Amino acid sequence: MATSARQHALGAYTYDQVVTIAEQDFPDAFSATLKVEDVPWKLPKYRVGFSEHCLFLGYITISNITNKVSAQLSTSGDICLFRREVGLSRRENEKIEFAGFWAHLTKRAERPNLDNLKALCGFYFVAGVDEVKVARILQRLLIVVKTKQRKWGDRVEEELKWAWRDYRRYWR
Questions:
Q1: Cys staple from 22: which of 6, 30, 108, 146, with CB 3.0 to 4.6 Å?
Q2: What is the pTM of this model?
């Protein structure tokens, strides 16, 4: 499974393939990560992303005002770091004071670069997806779309086949 995942285009692999690669390529680091059920999910005060929940990362002080920093999943699938509804700049990202679950990242030597932090957050967002629920919502949406605009619905379904090969698995 891991070999085939490495042959896909970026982002075109399943959660199970990502887990297999992680277990094979860096087992110690992967086993040290929290399970998705144990991650401290929050309901965002300011919803700026696609997901209903966000990952609280810590705090940032700007102009003597301390703000909470959270990671949210954007509609394009990117992980974005925010304080209130404002995205953080690169310089601000370096000033995050990690808290709670993320506190071990505060030591300068262990502080991850932003890409690694976003990859870990992305992993948790993907791991937290309820595939059954999403698949059934997609089924209902495609039925409605295809009854009103068949050609466009077929095109959407073709893109869906590419992005999620097993999308019909939980259909009724």
A1: 30
A2: 0.68
